[in-house]
Design brief:
Bound molecules: phosphoenolpyruvate, manganese (II) ion
CATH class: Alpha Beta
CATH superfamily: Aldolase class I
Order of helices and strands: EEEHEHEHEHEHEHEHHEH
Number of domains: 1
Number of helices: 9
Structural class: alpha/beta
Strand content: 15-25%
């Protein structure tokens, strides 16, 4: 099946690239990043408004103070936006300018949130929890579809293993398994999976070669200054280079990028 976010169809023959900052930090940062990833071939934007941070004293996202400039930048750039909701009350607040809601890894088991999201119409990008079995992830998707909303996109974002050299371990098994055993589109988040910017691009190519329906990648104009996940953010230039190589990998599999 395909799931449509704005004008973009995910899950067909084409490969969809979603890109943008981990957190939306300022009008300027969001505009610069969005314009640049669009020019490089991304067809959807990502950007956090409310962040699920490990530490309660870490940056929690701009929240409501960003709404007006996000609308303005989105209208200028002309791409649809995927953003995480951590509470069902946020859906109403942002539904006029957010085109798909992300359920973060930490909320994959928040069944009351999943049920509520199943009763509204916008597509849901469902991250796999870092310690969830594939089966638990697929059943979490059913919590959403049971409410009537069939528009779920699964996202593998790395799981916890014994390995500590990288932030998580990208489970490509889960990608090919979910493609075979579920009807939903499956995308890969290489940024949270590996956690190290220099290692993100090869995992983007691996996702394409493994038959994923797309990727969601963190990009920042100045990763050293990022308020969240700077270590794993591609620079604008890194992202451009990655996209050139990615197109070659897709070509080898007779696939192309989704175009906006
Ligand atoms: C994110 O996308 O920035 C994020 C917090 O992802 P995850 O829920 O996969 O950790
Ligand atoms: Mn992040």
């Amino acid at each position: 099946m395909t799931v449509q976010i704005g004008k973009i169809k995910i899950g067909g023959p084409e490969f969809t690239v979603i890109a943008g900052p981990c957190s939306i930090e300022s009008e300027n940062q969001f505009r610069t990043t969005s314009q640049s990833v669009k020019n490089a071939g991304a067809s959807l934007l990502r950007g956090g408004i409310w962040k699920m941070r490990t530490s309660p004293t870490a940056f929690q996202g701009l929240g409501e103070s960003s709404f007006e400039f996000i609308k303005k930048v989105k209208a200028e750039i002309g791409l649809s936006l995927v953003s995480e909701v951590t509470d069902i009350r946020q859906v109403e607040e942002i539904s006029s300018f957010v085109d798909a809601f992300q359920v973060g890894a930490r909320n994959m088991h928040n069944y009351s949130l999943l049920k509520d999201l199943g009763k509204q119409e916008k597509p849901i990008l469902l991250k796999r929890n870092f310690s969830a079995y594939i089966d638990e992830w697929l059943k979490a998707a059913e919590y959403i579809t049971q409410g009537g909303n069939k528009n779920v996109i699964l996202c593998e974002r790395g799981i916890r293993t014994f390995e500590k050299a990288t932030r998580n371990t990208l489970d490509l098994n889960a990608v090919v398994y979910a493609k075979k055993h579920s009807q939903f589109p499956v995308i890969v988040d290489p940024s949270h999976a590996v956690g190290i910017a220099d290692l993100v691009s090869p995992l983007c190519y691996a996702a394409a070669a493994a038959g994923a329906d797309g990727i969601i990648v963190e990009v920042h104009p100045n990763p050293a200054e990022a308020k969240s996940d700077g270590d794993q953010a591609l620079t604008l230039e890194n992202f451009d280079t990655m996209m050139v190589q990615l197109k070659k990998v897709l070509h080898a599999f007779d696939r192309t990028l989704t175009t906006a």
